[in-house]
Amino acid sequence: MKRKAMGAGGPDISALCLGTMTWGTQNTEAEGHAQMDQALAAGVNFLDTAEMYPTNPVRAETVGHTEAIIGNWIARTGRRHAWVIATKIGGAGGQARGGEPITAASLGRAVDASLGRLRCDHVDLYQLHWPNRGSYQFRQNWAFDPRRQDRAAVLANIEDCVAGLGRAMTAGKIRAWGLSNESAWGMAQWLRIADQAGVPRPVTIQNEYSLLARLWDTDLAELAHNEAITLLAFSPLATGLLTGKYQGDRTPEVSRRAVNPTMGGRITPRVWAAVDAYLAIARRAGLDPAQMALAWTITRPVRTVPIIGATTPAQLALALGAVDLTLPADVLAAIDAAHKAHPMPY
């Protein structure tokens, strides 16, 4: 499988990243291990998890279970070297660690806890799951109000966390670090403060990005291009909407929507027409719509690695096939037209 550099200082990673957030709820440990084997066989070497996983739903009593599933695979196979492993520390108000905010102290404890569950001595990429100050991701952009932020407190916290990240890197516990659910201003501050502190810069940002969710495309894309930041795109299939399985406002019995009826706010009156437009493009071109959507993210002008998730081997095989798909110019033009017609369906 094709490889891409992770930022300016991270390791080379596969063009697709294996997501794990369903392992421990929708998927058993055995199924998670089978997905790791299947992805490795296809050339994937990059895996993303988090201390708060599994999701659907997130519960305090299951925090860390997905990391433990991965750790059991590593212990059983002895193949830690096969994977570039990314994990995350949860932010303020989440289920992990009683909802405490991210600080240098909590970060140090969380890194050690993740390493224990993963059964390894380092993680290749350590990410801050969301900012303590909050985020406009997950549809919060509709009511976003930055006046609630205390600039001095935000910057002081970033300085503290950067120092903690630097200590973890010096100790060899993490190799590189990144952000998630961040804004352009926030990312710029992390870069600036890391430079001032003499700590290696962040190399990635993990934000939602798909044909239906394109807040990334302007200021953040410009920042990422000029500062050599790689986008790790979560929900590149819009939690399954872009596969077409929910069209007609359907809810399959075994599906994410059966657990989360609004799909995290993605179900709106506008979304069905937008999805119809992309399904029609794929149908006219003789393409699978999921593969088309994933191939589109891979070929974006700013370096992007989509995080693929699956609950069955067939779904994973379909996603893996997207890496070799080249979208014709007329398909790309039709996608651009559909985006202009349906710019923010949720």
Q: Would you mind describing this structure in some detail?
A:
The protein has a single domain, classed as Alpha-Beta Barrel (TIM Barrel). The model has no long low-confidence stretch (mean pLDDT 97). Strand 8, helix 6 (219-227) and strand 9 (230-234) form a beta-alpha-beta unit. Strands 3-4-5-6-7-8-9-10 form an 8-stranded parallel beta barrel, surrounded by 4 helices. It has 11 helices and 10 strands. It has 346 residues and is of the alpha/beta class. The protein has helices at residues 29-41, 65-77, 104-118, 151-170, 184-197, 219-227, 256-259, 271-285, 289-298, 313-320, 329-341, and strands at residues 3-5, 12-14, 17-19, 46-48, 84-89, 125-128, 177-180, 204-208, 230-234, 304-308.
Looking at this protein, list some descriptive labels.
alpha/beta; 8-stranded parallel beta barrel; two-stranded antiparallel ribbon; 10 strands; globular; 346 residues; 11 helices; TIM Barrel
Radius of gyration: 19 Å
The CATH superfamily appears as: NADP-dependent oxidoreductase domain
Helix-strand pattern: EEEHEHEHEHEHEHEHHHEHH
Structural class, from secondary structure content?
A: alpha/beta
The count of strands amounts to: 10
Sheet bearing the most strands, described?
8 strands, parallel, barrel
> Helical percent range?
25-40%
Q: In terms of per-residue confidence, which ranges show pLDDT below 50 for 5 or more consecutive residues?
A: none
Provide the β-strand percentage band. 5-15%
CATH class: Alpha Beta
Query: For the residues shown, what is the average pLDDT?
Result: 97
CATH topology: TIM Barrel
The number of helical elements comes to: 11
- Integer count of domains: 1
How are strands sequenced across the largest beta sheet?
Answer: 3-4-5-6-7-8-9-10
| Oligomeric state of the chains in view | single chain
CATH architectural group: Alpha-Beta Barrel
What's the overall geometry? globular
Termini gap? 33 Å
